[in-house]
Amino acid sequence: MRKFCSLLLVVVLLAGCAGTPAENPPPAEVVEAIAPVSVEVISQEDPLLLAPQPRRLTILAVGDLMVHRDQYWDAELPGGGYDFTHNFAQVMDDLNEGFAIGNLETVFGGPEIGPMCFPNFNTPDEFADAIRAGGFDFLTTCNNHSLDWGPDALIRTQNVLDAAGLAYTGTYRNQADSEQITIVEAEGLRIAILAFTFSTNGIPIPQGREYLVNMLTEEKVIADLAKARALEPDLIIVLPHMGNEYEEFTRPAFLHWMDLMLYHGADFVLASHPHVLQPMMTRELVDIDGVERTGFIMPSLGNFISTQRTEPRDISIILKLDVVQEAGERPVLERVRFVPIWVQYRHADGSVHIRVLSVGDAVESFENPENPLGLRPHDIERLHRANSYITNMFLGAAKTGDDFAREYIFFERDEQ
Questions:
Q1: Which of 53, 253, 257, 308 is deepest in the core (most CB within 10 A)?
Q2: Under 8 Å CB-to-CB from 98, ≥6 apart: which residues?
Q3: Is the distance from CB of 352 to CB of 73 less than 8 angstroms?
Q4: 66 has pLDDT over 70
Q5: SS3 letters for 193-244?
C-alpha cells in the first residue's frame, strides 16, 4: 500500500508541473537531455491491493516496576525533583516495538507521604513520566502493594497515570468503573485486559469499597472473563498477581489458576509476584466456547527494575508475543521471543547508576575499548551467568559462545 501511494504522488506532481508554464524554460539542449519519466500504473484490480492484509501486533510484557530507596536517591536532582528516565533509556527500542505492559509495584501517594520503599512503597510522580517516556503503554496497578497508603493514594495513583498518558486496570475509583472491562486498541486489534491480586498485604479494603482492588477469586475471574468474552475483543490478556516469592518453579495450584483463565477465554496469562523468573509455557486447549487454540502462560516475569541484588532477582526478560490476524479469523500467536535483561546498579566510575540493560548489549559494550555503558569485569561475569540461566530455563540449554544472542525465540507457530 505504501508503494502504491508513493507512485500516485509521483503522478500528481508530474501532472501539476505539466499544466504550469516554466518562468525560465531551460535551454533546448538541456530539455533534450532530460529522460522521459516512466511511471508504473498499478491496476486497481491488482490482487495484492484487493486482498486484505493481515494485522500484526507485538505485545511486550515485563515484570515488576519497583522503586527502592537507592533508585529515588539515584534519580534525585540537585535543584529538586526527580528524573528516572535513564532507568529505561537503554531498552526503549524494545519497549517501542509494540504494545508494552508492566506491573506497577508501587503507588504515587504524593509528596506529603514522601518517597518510601518496603514494606509500604510510595514513589515520586516523575517515575510515571519516565515509564511513559520509556515506551510503556499499559500497567496493572493491581498487586499486593495497591493499598500501601490507603484508598486516597490508590486513587491519586490513577490520577498520576492519567496525567502521564498511561492506561491501566485492576484498581478503580468507584463501583461503576470496577464493573467495566478495560478495552484498549493497538494496531487495529481490540484487546481486553483484566488484572487480579491474591493479596493487599493484610491491609483491609474498606467495607463498602470492595471495588477499589480486583481480588483473585474464582467467582470474580470467571464472571469478568465472561463479560470480556461478551464484548468480542480480538484478544484477552489476564495479569494475575500471585505465586510464592523467590520460587523459581511454578506450583500446580498456580498452573491451575492460569489454565482456568485460558479455559474461560484468556489468550495470554502474564503473572507476577515471585520477583524471579519462572518457566513460560504454551498450552493447547479447547476453551469454554469449544474453540481449539494455543494459549500462553508466563507464571512469573520477575523484576523488571528494582535494587534487589540477590541472584536471580536482578535479572529478567522483555517478553515479546508476536500476534497475527488474518481477515475474518481469530488472532493467533505466531511467535514468542525474549530479550534477557539485567539491572545495572553501579557504574565503573563508582557512582550508583541504576538502569535496565539488555544482556547482549551490555556484553557488546564491554568488548568496546571505550566501555560506553561503564561495566566492570565482574559485571560481565554476572551477565554471562544471567544469559546461561535464562536460556537454560526457557530453551533447555545454556546459550554461550557462538550461540550467545541478544534475543531468542521460544516458540514459532507451525505453518502446516
A1: 257
A2: 57, 58, 59, 60, 186, 187, 320
A3: yes
A4: yes
A5: EEEEECCCCCCCCCCCCHHHECECCHHHHHHHHHHHHHCCCCEEEEEEECCC
* Set of cell numbers at residue 119: 514494606
Closest CA to 55 of 268, 235, 293, 267: 235
pLDDT reported for residue 193: 98
Residue 167's CB is within 10 A of a number of other CB atoms, namely 16
User: What size, in residues, is the chain?
Assistant: 416
Contact between 175 and 134 under an 8 Å Cβ cutoff? The reply is: no
- Cα 145 from Cα 81, distance rounded (Å): 24
Kindly state the cell numbers that stand for 401.
Answer: 559462545
Spatial distance between the Cα atoms of 317 and 182, rounded to a whole number of angstroms = 26
Predicted pLDDT of residue 52: 81
Other CB atoms within 10 Å distance of the CB of residue 374? 17
Lowest-pLDDT range of 15-24, 40-49, 338-347, 354-363: 15-24
pTM for the complete prediction?
A: 0.88
Find where cell 498518558 sits.
165
Question: How many other CB atoms are there within 10 angstroms of residue 157's CB atom?
Answer: 27
Q: How far, CA to CA in Å, does 167 sit from each of 30, 194, 212, 300? A: 60, 12, 17, 22
Contacts of residue 132, defined as CB under 8 A and 6 or more positions apart, other chains included, come to 164, 165, 166
- For 93, list phi and psi in degrees, rounded to 5: -60, -40
Cβ contacts of residue 162 below 8 Å, gap of 6+? none
Residue 100: beta bridge partners? 60
C-alpha cell at 318: 522483555
Q: Is the dihedral of CA 390, 128, 124, 270 positive or negative?
A: negative
The three cell numbers locating residue 394: 526457557
